Amino acid sequence: MSSDAMLDLRGGSASTALAGVRVQAPGRLHLGFLDPSATLGRRFGSLGLVVDGLHTTVELRRADSDAVSAVDDSSQAELPRALVHLERLRGATGYHAPLHLHIARALPAHAGLGSGTQLALAVGRAFCAVFGVRLSTPDIARLTGRGLRSGVGIAGFDQGGLLLDGGPRADGGAAPLLSRLTLPPPWRVMLVLDPRHRGLAGAEEKAALAALAPLSRETAAEICHEVLMRVLPGAAGGEFAPFAAGLTRMQSLLGRHFSPAQHGRPYTSAAVGRLLEWIGARTVAAAGQSSWGPTGFAIVPSASDADAAMAAAREAGVLDPALQLCVVRARDHGASLAPLP
User: Fold this and answer.
1) For residue 304, what is the enclosing H or E element?
2) Structural domains in the chain (count)
């Protein structure tokens, strides 16, 4: 097998153990919950989109003694979390042979791109490949404590695409995947990152969710309608206008709901919010914030539309110089796994 071979990860790892392996896990946008308060009966339910261009890359190989390394400071900061995942996997499987763990690249932490889940799944899939262990991605998520609210990170690791899940199961199991679609190839995703801010996570996220007033039944029903009758049909049929209108409306409703936990704003970063609201008022785009942010997004029909929007924003002076912008494609496949030479 060549070093750049890609394996199908959906059925669990291969039974043949590898001496070393590299796993690249893509970033994802969490586009919103359907019913975060369960006012319609079932809690959460998520819409998400896997994107190219941003990813976490983990390398794991057998060694004479345990060792860790990282390529830069941001990757170094992820090593403690990665080691916790390794110890949980060792405890669950009984495989304790020494390993060298190297983080070659890390998604920005607490930025709304799914860094925690993708790190856990990348470490887990690499562990399974090195020891020839068969664990499904939901099994790895359960062992590493991921996917407690949203299932799009788990499904995105396996398959990529535009994903809709039905919320966690009653027994706490991973949310079932209800729909997976591929966005039309010309569509582009403008990502806007603000490194000065961090989204909520862990205990802070739990406290923020507990403090929010319940989302009304009417609002939850409207979000469900927007997803089912505008976002998904628009994506499936290549109809950009209803897709954009539905996703922007969903984001508006959720931004209003979560604003008390975001300094009274629909966006964690005011600079990101100003830019995306300016673009949304002048361009046909699906705009909003991923998870707790601070990353924002604007999905547009083509690369030329993205270039034009960014150029116009710079000329108008609404682009904060501290913001980081990139234009990426939606990703229609999941993580990749390759043996190390």
Assistant:
1) helix 303-316
2) 2
Maximal C-alpha separation, the chain = 60
Structure tokens, 226? 């927007």
Asked if residue 52 belongs to a domain, the reply is yes
| In a shared domain, residues 142 and 270 | no
Q: How far apart are CA 273 and CA 279, in angstroms?
A: 10
Mean pLDDT to the nearest integer, 295-318: 97
Residue 213: how many other CB atoms lie within 10 Å: 8
| DSSP letter assigned to residue 330 | B
Burial class (CB in 10 A: 0-12, 13-18, 19+), 211: exposed
Task: Kindly tell me if the per-residue pLDDT of 15 is higher than 70.
Answer: no
* DSSP class per residue in 103-135: EEE-PPTTSSS-HHHHHHHHHHHHHHHHHT---
What is the average per-residue pLDDT within 281-302?
97
For residues 52 and 123, state if they share a domain: yes
Whole-angstrom distance, CA of residue 39 vs CA of residue 198: 29
Return the pLDDT at 8: 38
121: tokens are 């799944």
My answer on whether 106 and 68 are in the same domain is yes
State how far the Cα of 84 lies from the Cα of 8, in Å rounded to an integer: 26
Judge if 39 and 55 occupy the same domain.
yes
Instruction: Reduce the DSSP state of residue 74 to 3 states and report it.
Output: helix
What does the pLDDT read at residue 12? 43
Q: Contact 336/24 with Cβ under 8 angstroms? A: yes
Are 105 and 58 a contacting pair, CB within 8 Å? no
- Claim to verify: residue 322 and residue 335 sit in the same structural domain: no
pLDDT per residue as tens digits for the range 127-158: 999 999 999 999 999 999 999 899 999 999 99
Q: What is the pLDDT of residues 183-199, one digit of tens each?
A: 999 999 999 999 999 99
β-strand partners of 105: 57
Give the mean model confidence (pLDDT) for residues 24-42. Answer: 97
Q: CA 238, CA 299: separation in Å to the nearest integer?
A: 13
> If 0-12 CB within 10 Å is exposed, 13-18 middle and 19+ buried, where does residue 218 land?
exposed
